[in-house]
Design a protein that fits this description.
With 168 residues, the protein is an alpha+beta fold. It has helices at 26-41, 128-141, 152-167, and strands at 46-48, 58-61, 73-83, 87-92, 102-107, 109-115, 121-127. The protein is 27% helix and 26% strand. The strands form 2 sheets. Strands 1-2-3-6-7 form a 5-stranded antiparallel β-sheet. Strands 4-5 form a two-stranded antiparallel ribbon. The longest helix is centred in the first third of the chain and has 16 residues, at 26-41. It is globular, with a radius of gyration of 15 Å. The relative contact order is 0.19. Residues 94-96, 136, 140 line the site of nickel (II) ion.
């Protein structure tokens, strides 16, 4: 497995709407495995393919805590079927926006459908941190980032800071 470079703000790929994965083949499985390795190495609890420069609808997640066994999830073409009425607030970070945390309130429960690593259709009910992480990662597939939940002024300050450090 290979570690992949993680793109950071203001890379334009992060703003693209990712394309559906047409076929779950060896190449897609290898990408999923490399993304998991990259996520664990970072370390992070989720990673979306656009963050490694691949504009395809593929996300990986693992929200198990440090002392528990790894519980890797691979979701291809994930689609949220239902969002619950409850809300959950969480201070979210993003591997593509290092050192920035944004308090975001999202639905606390959801049902998501996706293809797994073997191309088999799955449906999952999620709550807590997993529900938050799934929404965060699917946002990436639509070019949406945590800074989009901030006021325009705060967002612009962060973007400008990253643009400046990308140039130096
Ligand atoms: Ni992120």
């Amino acid at each position: 497995m290979a570690l992949l470079p993680i793109l950071t703000l203001p890379d334009p790929i992060l703003r693209d709407v990712a394309a559906r994965v047409e076929r779950v083949d060896g190449e897609v499985r290898r990408l999923a495995d490399d993304m998991l390795a990259t996520m664990y190495d970072a370390p992070g609890i989720g990673l979306a393919a656009p963050q490694v420069g691949i504009s395809r609808r593929l996300i990986v997640l693992d929200v198990s805590d440090d002392d528990g066994a790894a519980r890797p999830l691979v979701m291809i073409n994930p689609e949220i079927l239902h969002l619950g009425d409850g809300r959950r607030s969480y201070e979210e970070g993003c591997l593509s926006i290092p050192d920035v945390k944004v308090e975001i309130e999202r639905p606390s429960t959801l049902t998501v459908a996706y293809l797994d690593r073997d191309g088999v259709r799955q449906q999952l009910d999620a709550d807590g941190l997993l529900a938050t992480a799934i929404q965060h990662e699917i946002d990436h597939l639509d070019g949406r980032l945590i800074i989009d939940f901030l006021s325009r002024l705060k967002r612009d300050i962060i973007v400008r800071r990253f643009r400046k450090s990308a140039r130096t």
